[in-house]
Design a protein that fits this description.
By secondary structure, the chain is of the alpha/beta class. It is about 25% helix and about 25% strand. The strands form three sheets. Strands 3, 5, 6, 10, 11, 18 and 19 form a seven-stranded mixed sheet that branches. Strands 8-7-2-1-4-9 form a six-stranded mixed sheet, with no helix packed on it. The structure holds nicotinamide-adenine-dinucleotide (NAD) and zinc ion (2 copies).
């Protein structure tokens, strides 16, 4: 079918909203009419070239919508089902999936190849060329045709615009705190970077019972908003937070530090480890340039203070279980999704949305689709 999509043709370029062709579902695939797509910082890494991918690429990996077509062999979904996209597919059968680590599903290896899971071919074309959909999704288009492993069925009572957030940022942030950092009641937790991901690490840390939730963000409005999501203290820089933590923890420092800055640098890792207590854990969720291999840290402290430095993808969560669970928490009033979206954009306004993110204006920007986009 012909529709519109936001395509990136060159590193450093703008998203070009133009006509694209989205193919019909093949074996084990469905077509989904999306209601919304979040503007995650991970798509910005495509623009900067920090995440290397062949171009052209259609961005977007945080969406929700309604299944409109079902391909042969699909067993888990039918037309009319409401779904959230999972930015890592969960096949349910590979060693990590069957061991309860769907966020590490072996299908993740093909995320940036654009080759469909079912037969290795491409579902999207623009200007007569194959286009790589970000994370095998490409939610910067009102229609996606994806493998059933890449979507999770949800309760149709949940507004789709709210549900979209759980496709990446919410689950990633929440799980970084509750699962990967394994925050326990009474702990002191530091979140570096209170954006679309970090704000949900704040919510996760607070829900897990952290006594002190310390937020670091250079943007004043993010610091203010983080108090609404459970922060107890906020600082503009790691240096300020480090000095204050000495008092706040009687010199012991934070049990857990979670890095969710938009464009992570090597020095952020050392900053996090300096704020981490003896026997504590620093979690690296933020991403930077794939080419950046410069991290300096005190191996002396790492070893002798037995600190734990841990990477995290998709918040260590099993999307099939966690996405419905988080939406159920939302329905119960225990997870704030309503205040995460700062600004809604039309697809045509996507470059403004990313400019607002760069300028620190959004917790999460979100594209909402209307018939005009289709
Ligand atoms: N590991 C994963 O599975 C995963 C999933 C999604 C996103 N990400 C990554 O997480 C990061 C955050 O994504 P996002 O969508 O929340 O981005 P965002 O731009 O919404 O938020 C980043 C925040 O970091 C703040 N910041 C910038 N420099 C800082 C510093 N030195 N100290 C403290 N705060 C700083 C910014 O002001 C902003 O509020 C990105 O790198 C993204 O690619 C990782
Ligand atoms: Zn994301
Ligand atoms: Zn798997």
């Amino acid at each position: 079918m012909k529709t519109k999509g936001a395509v990136l043709w060159e590193v450093g370029g703008e998203w070009s909203v133009e006509e694209i062709e989205v193919g019909d579902p093949r074996e084990h695939e469905v077509t989904v009419e999306l209601a919304a797509s979040g503007l995650c910082h991970s798509d910005e890494h495509l623009v900067t070239g920090g995440t290397p991918v062949e171009l052209p690429v259609i961005g977007g990996h945080e969406g929700a919508g309604v299944v409109t077509k079902v391909g042969p062999g699909v067993t888990s979904l039918q037309e009319g089902d409401h779904v959230v996209t999972a930015f890592i597919p969960a096949c349910g059968q590979c060693p990590p999936c069957s061991d309860g680590h769907q966020n590490l599903c072996d299908l993740g290896a093909g995320l940036l190849t654009g080759q469909s899971i079912s037969d290795g071919s491409f579902r999207i074309q623009a200007r007569g060329q194959n286009v790589i959909p970000m994370c095998l999704l490409g939610t910067f288009s009102p229609y996606i045709t994806v493998h059933e492993a890449s979507v999770v069925k949800i309760d149709p009572d949940i507004p789709l615009e709210v549900a979209a957030l759980v496709g990446c940022g919410v689950t990633t942030g929440w799980g970084s705190a509750t699962r990967v950092a394994d925050v326990r009641p009474g702990e002191t937790v530091v979140i570096m970077g209170a954006g679309g991901v970090g704000m949900n690490a704040v919510q996760g840390a607070a829900a897990a019972g952290a006594k002190q939730v310390v937020v670091i963000d250079p943007v004043a409005s993010k610091r203010e908003r983080s108090m609404q999501f459970g922060a107890t203290h906020t600082f503009a820089s790691a240096a300020e937070a480090t000095a204050a933590l000495v008092d706040l923890t009687l010199g012991r420092m934070a049990h857990k530090v979670i890095i969710t800055v938009g464009d992570i640098q090597g020095e952020n890792v050392q900053e996090a480890l300096t704020m981490t207590a003896k026997g504590g854990r620093a979690v690296v969720t933020g991403m930077g340039s794939a080419a950046n291999v410069d991290v300096k840290l005190s191996l002396f402290e790492l070893t002798l203070l037995q600190k734990d430095l841990q990477g995290a993808i998709f918040g260590g969560a099993n999307p099939r279980a966690e996405i419905p669970a988080l939406l159920s928490l939302y329905q119960g009033g225990q997870l704030n999704l309503d205040d995460l979206v700062t600004t809604k954009y039309k697809l045509e306004e996507i470059n403004q949305g990313y400019q607002d993110m760069r300028d620190g204006r959004n917790i999460r920007g979100m594209i909402t689709y209307s018939d005009a986009d289709r």
